[in-house]
Amino acid sequence: MIRIIDGGVTSPKGFLAAGLRAGIKAGKTNKDMAMIRSEVPAVFAGTFTRNKVTAAPVQWDKSVLEKGGPVQAVVVNTGVANAATGEEGFDNSKRTAEEAGKQLGIPAEQVLVASTGVIGFQLPMDKILSGVGMLKDALSDTREAALDASEAILTTDTHRKEIAVTFDIDGVTCTLGGMSKGSGMIHPNMGTMLCFLMTDVKIQKDLLQSVLREVVDETYNMVSVDGDTSTNDSVIVLANGMSGAAEISQAGEALDTFKEALMQVCTYLAKETARDGEGATRLFTCHVTGAPDRSTARTLAKAVITSSLTKAAIFGKDANMGRLLCAMGYSGAEYDPMKVDVTMVSSAGSIKLVQNGTMPEFSEEEALEILSPEEITAEVELHQGNVEATAWGCDLTYEYVKINADYRS
Known about the structure:
- About 35% of the residues lie in helices and about 25% in strands.
- Strand 4, helix 2 and strand 5 form a beta-alpha-beta unit.
């Protein structure tokens, strides 16, 4: 049984965190650097962006992952993405890890780094290195420390995104806590903008990597805000084994329980990313059922939530199903359009707007009422099998353009 608790990255045993303002961008007042530390070396698994323009911190973290060793700390900065910054950018990521290693008394190869912000600028290393020292002194295992860290990684996000759960492995209580950020440039091909997951479970490295990839594919890879895959996407998991539970080393009940917990945490954080899309007023979900195979279901669900015209219709509370059907039609998926039913669902009720591929008569007033709440779901039934998939997005608003027109300022 998975139990949600009030917590974040400091909830599992042996994890400390801090978040504060280092002054990365002049004229701002927000917290802009965070650190997470495990008291003991932890097993590390990660997934990263497939954008060919790969940010320097992603390059550093992938090199750490490939070496296969443990990890004991993560340093995160906002304001500057450290992407499209060449050799100097990579050297700055390495210098950040080296400074954190020096401050914490651990090898630089046990330190991960992550950045988010404007692409194309070099990190202000005086601020970064100074910030690392301040973070080290502020580390704590308190709830407040987790809140500070989750706030310090935000950019255009409107609220913190964090969650913690407990579950039992062979009678021992274990904990998984996570925090993420992401609001714009969200169309992951591995994970969300930045996500950090900490657990006191003891698990074999290859199993952790395998489970993470499966969960990421069903959660973060099914989210889109604007169709733009970031240069910095990273999902990082550290498992330090401090719960005292036996090591998970093979398939079985323990691994299934851990995977269920990871799925619940990542689903929540993925949905919060979609809900908090830049300028968004509605969480828009597409649930495809009756598909002949997984690929068809996933392709159609993502086509619907990424369609700019469909997203605009959701913003306008407009029951224009022609836009949704059009998006399905150009998705490349093989299905029979004349068997499709679409029902729009919200807390205000439900209304069928497509039946057998055509649009029946319906009450515009009723449709407007159902499309007005903050969460809208398109239930798409294909009647061609028993496979389903869910994707999460948001509406497209005037505010999205305003935010991104002024992003560098």
